[in-house]
Amino acid sequence: MDFLIFLAIIGFGLLLLYWAKIGQQAEDEVLSKKYKALYERINSKYSIQKHYIYKGEQGIAFDSQTDKIILFNTVSDKVFKKQEILQVEIVEDGNTISQISRTGQLGGALLGTMIAGTAGAIVGGLSASRSKVEKITDMKLRVIVDDTSSPIHEVTFFHTSKNEAIKKSDATYKQVYRTILEWQKIVEILIKRADQEEQKLNIN
């Protein structure tokens, strides 16, 4: 009798594992379709050199022919010329850990106006030390643009519940950080190009 109960428990456990696997496969298939649909829409409209899509819901892309950044979701796209990008930040759990800003006279003035106009809501305090926080649940790339109606745009690169927070020593964190850092550097290049073009115009 005990042996039969044992077999029943084992069988039920295997059945639960099977259902979980089927459920995960269905979820992966849905995400794959959402990702493909979003990518095809963006790729058909722009000359995409590089792109990143988070869970088929939102993302960022770089149009190499026009030096523009496209921020998009399932509903709409927003395209920004390099001259319109004022600042780019890496944000972990709401704290800015890395920040690149326009240094040119025009870009700096615009960014100053944005900050003053939003009572400091755009630029949060830079974290004193990344090492002080051992675990995180959220990583975003924040792009601030010359648009008073909607100056802040964020792209999620990682998000989970508090119970599943990842350590900064984990491989998952390191992989996500490398990806988000690469995108910050791409935007930084565009910011520097805009500053250089402004400087040339001022000299002439």
UniProtKB/TrEMBL annotation:
Superkingdom of source: Bacteria
Name recorded for this polypeptide: Uncharacterized protein
Lineage of the organism: Bacteria, Bacillati, Bacillota, Bacilli, Bacillales
